[in-house]
């Protein structure tokens, strides 16, 4: 792909990108309904059971039949990963890096077909889908190159000052063992591929479980790793529900570490389980967000409204980084609302595989149910619905999970200002000044992303006081969304993350390793 695709650049793609996506989509649609397997110990294999999955765009469209693992197969994958660990750990840095870069190349070769499948499975528009697939390729390449730059985290230290002896010292980082990766449904390719790449390049073996709502994306990632030529057992792919298969992996005695992306409640249960064994084991939990945007009296309202709409409604608000709270200075709130309503009205909603549609359906039946429940609550506790809060079921939309993008004005004490809804719903509260705005923005147990629109002085105040791991200022491309490997490290504060280290940051890979101090006296 000659066009550099990131979440920040995807708003003005070349015409050829759409031609190639349409061709790939036709090919993917021709193969709908196929059976898809697991991948254990270097082999594709049937599950103990299988289930049919349908598209959230249109429930009449059968995506395929997907294998489901049972506990015995989860145990088999763990034992295969354990058996492969010694050999994979001993594999040279150069060979591990080569294999990761091969995965990146394969993903890029398949970027259009994988993105077409993502659109059908998750309901994200073609540009969001292409962005996610390219981001995954960038994760594999970024982590490979970072591990090379770090020289495998092997550092020579000064000799001890011992008379009559030579005391050689080194610090060496070593992999833990079998690493479990549990991915979410909203970014089922990138938020699986990123931690899989990090665990593998650092010498761990991997058992990866896809989200049960999005097994196709997981299988397509497994295809890329299989075809890259990893040794048997180094990477294993499972599909199954979290309460059985996910819990089996977390509780397994072979599990040396876990990376989980998902809700705060589930992430905290896993984090506590990993700390409660015979000894603590690492858990990288990337959890929720209740992300806020501050719009000051000095803001460019056109730019602010553009960024708010993109971050609140992109992918139906089903991003942990999605904007859900706006704190607007009372002097500009009416003008901002007018601008927002105009932009919401202009959104094209429909089948997201079509070029003209920007907003597709929500991804799951559970999300559709939650949208209805929240729509009722939004108008209570002093809330005033300004747009949306209704299901879209006209014509072809009736066959999918389509809902209206929703804007609500509410007082600061409305209970939904504190609940992560994970839907295309944004709530706005008028404030008297930036100090009140920052106080309310920080009044959350979560702290993933945040944005601000205002003067240079406003931005300085915002950056100094905001409690969030990923921050944006005056960004029309997205008020709180759009991080990309190598450009914006992505990780949360407080309840949004367990480590304080961000994805694709200077510090991320070291979390998959433990340090060993080595002293040899000659």
Q: Give me the number of helical elements.
A: 14
Shape: globular
Beta-strand content estimate: 15-25%
CATH fourth-tier homologous superfamily of the largest domain: Aldehyde Dehydrogenase, Chain A, domain 1
For the sheet with most strands, the description reads: 7 strands, mixed
Q: What is the CATH architecture assignment of the largest domain?
A: 3-Layer(aba) Sandwich
CATH topology type of the largest domain: Aldehyde Dehydrogenase, Chain A, domain 1
Helix content: 25-40%
If you compute it from the alpha carbons, what radius of gyration comes out, rounded to the nearest whole angstrom?
23 Å
How far from one another are the termini?
55 Å
Whole-number mean pLDDT:
96
- Which class of the largest domain in CATH terms? Alpha Beta
Which residues form runs of ≥5 with pLDDT under 50? none
Domain Aldehyde dehydrogenase: 53-514
Keywords: Membrane, NAD, Oxidoreductase, Transmembrane, Transmembrane helix
Family: Belongs to the aldehyde dehydrogenase family.
Active site: 286
Keywords:
Aldehyde Dehydrogenase, Chain A, domain 1; 5-stranded parallel β-sheet; 7-stranded mixed β-sheet; globular; Aldehyde Dehydrogenase, Chain A, domain 2; alpha/beta; 2 domains; 22 strands; 522 residues
SSE map:
Layout: H1 15-30, E1 34-36, E2 38-40, E3 43-45, E4 49-54, E5 62-68, H2 71-90, H3 93-109, H4 111-122, H5 126-149, E6 154-160, E7 167-175, E8 178-182, H6 190-201, E9 205-209, H7 215-228, E10 235-238, H8 242-251, E11 255-261, H9 264-275, E12 283-286, E13 291-295, H10 301-313, E14 323-329, H11 333-346, H12 365-378, E15 384-387, E16 406-409, E17 425-431, H13 434-441, E18 446-447, E19 449-453, H14 456-465, E20 470-473, E21 493-494, E22 513-521
Parallel strand pairs: 1-5, 8-9, 8-11, 9-10, 11-12, 13-14, 13-19, 14-17, 16-17, 19-20
Antiparallel strand pairs: 2-3, 4-5, 6-7, 7-22, 15-16, 18-21
Helix pairs in contact: 1-4, 2-8, 3-5, 3-7, 4-5, 5-6, 10-11
Pfam family, one: Aldedh
Family: Belongs to the aldehyde dehydrogenase family.
Protein name: L-glutamate gamma-semialdehyde dehydrogenase
């Amino acid at each position: 792909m000659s066009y550099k695709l990131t979440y920040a650049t995807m708003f003005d793609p070349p015409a050829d990108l759409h031609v190639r996506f349409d061709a790939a989509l036709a090919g993917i649609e021709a193969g709908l309904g196929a059976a898809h397997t697991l991948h254990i110990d270097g082999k594709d294999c049937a599950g103990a059971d299988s289930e049919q999955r349908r598209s959230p765009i249109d429930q009449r469209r059968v995506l395929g039949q997907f294998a489901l693992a049972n506990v015995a197969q989860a145990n088999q994958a763990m034992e295969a990963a354990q058996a492969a660990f010694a050999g994979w750990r001993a594999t040279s840095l150069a060979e591990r890096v080569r294999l990761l870069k091969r995965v990146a190349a394969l993903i890029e070769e398949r970027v259009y077909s994988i993105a077409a499948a993502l659109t059908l499975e998750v309901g994200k528009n073609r540009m969001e889908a292409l962005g996610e697939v390219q981001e995954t390729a960038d994760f594999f390449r970024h982590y490979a190159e970072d591990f090379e730059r770090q020289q495998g985290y092997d550092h020579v230290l000064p000799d001890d000052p011992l008379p009559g002896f030579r005391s050689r010292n080194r610090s060496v980082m070593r992999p833990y063992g079998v690493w479990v990766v549990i991915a979410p449904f909203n970014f089922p390719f990138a938020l699986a591929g990123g931690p899989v790449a990090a665990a593998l390049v650092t010498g761990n073996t991997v058992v990866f479980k896809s989200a049960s709502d999005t097994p196709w994306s997981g299988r397509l990632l497994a295809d890329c790793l299989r075809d890259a030529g990893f040794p048997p057992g180094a990477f294993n792919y499972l599909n199954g529900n979290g309460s059985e298969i996910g819990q089996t992996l977390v509780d397994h005695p072979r599990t040396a570490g876990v990376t989980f992306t998902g809700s705060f409640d589930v992430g905290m249960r896993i984090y506590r389980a990993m700390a409660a064994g015979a000894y603590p084991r690492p858990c990288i939990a990337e959890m929720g967000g209740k992300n806020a945007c501050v719009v000051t009296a000095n803001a460019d309202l056109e730019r602010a409204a553009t960024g708010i709409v993109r971050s609140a409604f992109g992918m139906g608000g089903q991003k942990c980084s999605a904007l859900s709270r706006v704190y607007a200075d009372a002097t500009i709130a009416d003008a901002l609302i007018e601008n927002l309503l105009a932009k919401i009205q202009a959104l094209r909603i429909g089948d997201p595989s079509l070029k003209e549609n920007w907003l597709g359906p929500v991804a799951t039946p559970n999300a559709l149910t939650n949208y209805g429940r929240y729509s009722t609550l939004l108008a209570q506790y002093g809330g005033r619905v300004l747009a949306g809060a209704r299901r879209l079921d006209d014509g072809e939309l009736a066959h999918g999970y389509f809902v209206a993008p929703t804007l609500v004005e509410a007082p600061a004490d409305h209970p939904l200002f504190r609940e992560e809804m994970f839907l295309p719903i944004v709530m706005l509260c008028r404030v008297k000044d930036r100090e009140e705005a920052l106080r309310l923005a920080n009044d959350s147990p979560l702290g993933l992303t945040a944005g601000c629109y205002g003067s240079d002085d406003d931005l300085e105040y915002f950056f100094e006081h905001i409690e969030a791991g990923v921050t944006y200022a005056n960004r029309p491309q997205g008020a709180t969304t759009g991080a990309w490997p190598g450009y914006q490290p992505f990780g949360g504060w407080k309840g949004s993350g367990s480590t304080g280290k961000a994805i694709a940051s200077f510090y991320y890979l070291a979390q998959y390793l433990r340090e060993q101090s080595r002293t040899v006296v000659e």
